[in-house]
Amino acid sequence: MSAARPLTTLRTLAVVAALPLLLTACGYGSSEDGKQTEVAAGAKKLSADEVKIGYFPNLTHATALVGVQEGLLQKELGGTRIKTSTFNAGPSEIEALNAGSIDIGWIGPSPGINGYTKSNGKNLRIIGGSASGGVKLVVNPDKIKSLDDVKGKKIATPQLGNTQDVAFLNWMADKGWKVDPQSGAGAVSVVRTDNKITPDAYKTGSIDGAWVPEPTASKLVAEGGKVLLDEADLWPDKKFVITNIIVSQSFLKDHPDVVAAVLRGSVKTNAWINANPQKAKSSANAALKKLSGKALPAEVIDPAWKSITFLDDPLAATLNTQAEHAVKAGLLKKPDLRGIYDLAPLNKILKADGKSAVDDAGLGAG
Asked: Among 273, 264, 267, which residue's Cα sits nearest to residue 78?
């Protein structure tokens, strides 16, 4: 999800974590960066005139896409305007958060982990979840007919040390296959390839498959690939975090009412998405077209959308497990993630809605 983990240090992770979240070969950009949403006449402001929100033009960030597109976030904020910024990379979003260019962001687990540890736990908090799933192993069915057939083949991941790369390395280690995590050489040739290039690499036969997020996975299927494994099947209850909501600690301290309003909007947006999946899919695609000038075709967005679960729970235990996988792979020094979550505002909102509280897996702020 916009995630999760780096090379030999978390610093490297920030550089590599974002590519899996890119949408298409066209390179979705930020044509509407700096745009302020319209507010209703006479709407009452909260403690801030505006809140600067960042996210990726990506299906796994559909809570933000739809929440802005449908006005669900703005409705909760009243007269406090939303100023949006979109990013193609997690590191740039973390930099924007650190610089005060954004206050709240939708982001994948890897850059969130990196941003937190790099600042010694002083720059951000994860305050909610947004999406789970949307990652698949897609292969050439003429060359690979079973999971064991993956051995000896060339399989792409978005980049060394990114979320999907670590997941694939961990999966191979569980099968007893030895692969050098740095070079990608071994029982399987791990070919680190930009998502925007992966479909062409598949078409030319340069790779035999890929462990990638949506919609890249569905683009490969549209080219004749076959889904051999859905990563969700490897996780308890088939859920693992791909997108979180983060906030600047200083903004959380100074404007808790604004943060709570954004969280209420997110919870209501997720509820609307789940109650109206077809309308939500169309809304997300309309937002993508507005941002990039190009919507996703039905053969890509339809299966991609089905594989993503939108939820409020940040699935904290899975973030910790993802970090452990990176350590196990030798790509990450064991991080101290205590304090990375502050779920009190979200749990207050969920309680008011009659919903169950979500857990921080012992990594809460206190």
From this structure: 264
Mean residue pLDDT of the chain comes to: 87
**Helices (H) then strands (E): counts for the chain:** 14, 11
Cα 263 to its chain centre, rounded Å, is: 17
CB atoms within 10 A of CB 224: 12
The residue with tokens 């999946």 is 277
What tokens were used for 140? 């050439």
The label of the residue with tokens 């050439």 reads 140
Highest mean pLDDT among 21-30, 90-99, 145-154: 145-154
What spatial distance separates the first Cα and last Cα of the chain, rounded to whole Å?
26
CA distances from 82 to 37, 75, 131 (A): 5, 10, 21
Count Cβ atoms within 10 A of the Cβ of residue 98 and give its class: 0-12 exposed, 13-18 middle, 19 or more buried.
middle
Q: Positive or negative, the Cα torsion across 253, 254, 257, 260?
A: negative
Using the predicted structure, report yes or no on whether residue 258 has a pLDDT greater than 50.
Answer: yes
